[in-house]
């Protein structure tokens, strides 16, 4: 029956509808294909292809998967986390609105930028959020590269050296007083010269500095062994730098006490060099560097040890009389007194510069001694 309907269609398709013959009544066809042909014919001409009493064919139900949808595809990343996208494939339902967050214009089929989960058309995004170029002062549009350095922004074509105007894109550069300079212009204008080779120290390379002078890292070497000093300790002498071992071998003085080289922190006593830690009191071994001291028989002593060991005792207070620093004292018959202790035994009157009398171990003023 289906074949019959199909043959009928093929046979008469070239004829105009008014010449189509009526369908054969002796063979009522119940096929879905022929029924659809009859309905098509009835739609074209009421007098041709009368519908037959056939069972209606059930229509398929629409499911969410059969509904037309519209999607978004990433096109261009933007600074600050924004993304430029264009709506073109399944993802957003056609029945829902998808508008610019600012101007409310539809974004279907248009480019847009997503910022903080909100979509913006290109025009609104550039008006509201586009950065301004430092060089030309114009906004940096969505279709341009935005080059940034320390919160400043440039068009790709505007990112060039302030002096020679050569592009700095994907090249090293230096900044000086808000100006961008290529390495050649910067070195010619501002870079220091190496103290050793007299050549320019290029920006971005490591350099060594000491007392206003600069060196390439490879030029800062020991004058004696010619090895790079780097960040190790060194000793300058006569405008030349020496590593510590070479200086000790060539220039360092030998400590009188330990016979080792003195590189730093030495002291001189009686024209002889000492390490600070070696110049100590003979008695208590306390360091004497920066302290008052005295010597006896070529041995150095701190004041306390010297007074305890060698100083005379005051006949008045029995404390040592050091005699150092210009201290004055009175001496009489192998006895000594501090100036402040040379007083009358009875009335305590100072006898410095006055006459006095003695009674056994006591000294008296003339008034107190007249009754003796």
From TrEMBL:
Stated name of the protein: Four and a half LIM domains 2
Primary localisation category: nucleus
One Pfam family this sequence matches: LIM_FHL2-3_N
GO cellular component, as recorded: nucleus; Z disc
GO terms (BP aspect): negative regulation of calcineurin-NFAT signaling cascade; negative regulation of transcription by RNA polymerase II
A GO term, aspect molecular function: zinc ion binding
Keyword Zinc included in the entry's annotation: yes
